[in-house]
Amino acid sequence: MTLKGKKILLGMTGGIAAYKAAALARLLVKSGCDVRVVMTEAATRFVTPVTMQALTGQTVWTDLWDPRVADNMSHIELSRDRDLILIAPATANFLAKVAQGIGDDLLSTLVLARRCGLMVAPAMNVEMWENGATQRNLRVLRDDAIALAGPVAGDQACGETGMGRMMEPAAIAAEVEAWFQPKALAGKRVLVTAGPTEEKIDPVRVLTNSSSGKMGYAVARAAREAGASVTLISGPVSLETPVGVQRVNVRSAQQMFDAVKSAVKGNDIFISVAAVADWKVKKSSEQKIKKANGRAPSFELEENPDILAWVAAQKHAPFCVGFAAESEKLDQNAKAKRLRKGVPLIAANLAQNALGADDNAITLYDARGRHSLGRGLKLEQARKLVAHVAGMLQSKKKTR
Predict the structure, then answer these.
(1) Mean pLDDT for the chain overall
(2) Cα dist. 293→284, 290, 296, 297, 397 in Å?
(3) Does domain 189-398 have CATH number 3.50.50.60?
(4) Segment 63-81, tens digit of pLDDT
(5) How far apart are CA 243 and CA 340, in angstroms?
(6) Is residue 123 pLDDT above 60, yes or no?
(7) What's the per-residue H, E or C state across 221-266?
(8) What are phi and psi for residue 312, nearest 5 degrees?
(9) Residue 23 confidence (pLDDT)
(10) Using CA atoms, how far apart are residues 168 and 302, in angstroms rounded to an integer?
(11) Given this chain, do its domains 7-179 and 189-398 carry the same CATH topology?
(12) Looking at 33, 116, 158, 320, which residue is catalytic?
């Protein structure tokens, strides 16, 4: 995570999800954050200040009139050096206070007097979440540019199931990390393809490519972090959907092509990261093919549709980015692919050094030449790619 040196004020309110805040505090500290905790009186009924002090190594604050602040202005002093205030859990009651500008304890008064950003991680019963008053308050919070991390649907401590469950600590930490990323694609719509495709041979066998989907999912996450509205069309992979990204699942190249054709209109950027199978069996078998005295079966193959080339050829095509996984002659093959596909940007790598790995070495090719991103984690590479795309779009805008 890129949170090293960030100063976070973690506010805790009174809900059973407060136990997750302890894990969240530990995770943020391990990520290099300076974490200061402020708790409401109700929060201390679920987790003790001693616990939070032990996890953060800092004094925990609970009292608006704490005499340890010389001028009795803890609601001012405690947030002035912070980069972000994060409320987790944020109860329905506390969200109402923030929405209506009520300051009747240390945490709510501190939020009113803040100069830094504010993020809330709601946690409440499903009926409380769906209540009209809560929904009105949420609209106010969004209008006030307050970031929401969650909630999600699932089993709740009360025994009921539905929306209102607080996000898991790792997901909240990822939202905090995303909050700090430059919003270079704010207002843009981005369509991303990721993962392999599977082409049916018979009911139990497929032709496919070696792709974990990690790079495509990292690109989708990075685009969303940059402020874009992101749709991810994914082949079969075992990865969690990035928070805030809309995902469409497909299996074959034709299904991916159909999904892209349905979704591409109105998008500003199309990033084709998927390892789409180049060929499919012309006539797959409806039944499992049996072994026949050691003779291997033969298949007639036909080409799958070229999704990237099709999108790039549209009259009002989005800004198109292709990916090239090569095994040799990276520069030569990537440059040729960019021209052949008719796209402004190709991101290329040597497949043998990246497939299934968490890191990658990517080189970008555009009309200006070659741009090495070096080697790094795929999310880091994805963020650099998104920044490059944003720069190209800005340059294009200036030349109009």
Answers:
(1) 87
(2) 21, 10, 9, 11, 65
(3) no
(4) 887 777 666 666 677 888 8
(5) 34
(6) yes
(7) HHHHHCCCEEEEEECCCCCCCCCCCEEEECCCHHHHHHHHHHHCCC
(8) -65, -25
(9) 93
(10) 45
(11) yes
(12) 158
Any residues with CB less than 8 A from the CB of 100 and at least 6 apart, and which?
Answer: 137, 140
Structure tokens at 4: 């090293």
Q: For residue 30, with 0-12 CB atoms within 10 Å meaning exposed, 13-18 middle and 19 or more buried, which class applies?
A: exposed
- Cα pseudo-dihedral 205, 208, 211, 215, rounded to 10: -120
CA dihedral over 136, 142, 148, 151, signed as positive or negative: positive
The residue whose two tokens read 């880091």 is: 380
- All structural domains of the chain with their residue ranges: 7-179, 189-398
Place of tokens 């749709």: 231
Query: Is 286 or 360 the better-scoring residue by pLDDT?
Result: 360
Amino acid at site 326 = E
Going from the C-alpha of 150 to that of each of 67, 137, 165, 218, the distances in angstroms are 36, 15, 8, 20
Length of the chain: 400
Phi, psi of 314 (to 5 degrees): -70, 150
What backbone phi and psi angles, to 5 degrees, belong to 322?
-105, 160
Comparing C-alpha atoms, which of 163, 63, 70, 71 is closest to residue 123? 163
How crowded is residue 257: how many other Cβ atoms within 10 Å of its Cβ?
A: 21
Query: What architecture is domain 7-179?
Result: 3-Layer(aba) Sandwich (3.40)
CB–CB of 261/250 below 8 Å?
no
CA distance 178 to 371: 25
**pTM beyond 0.85:** no
pLDDT band at residue 400 using 50, 70 and 90 as cut-offs: low
Query: Among this protein's residues, is 116 annotated catalytic?
Result: no
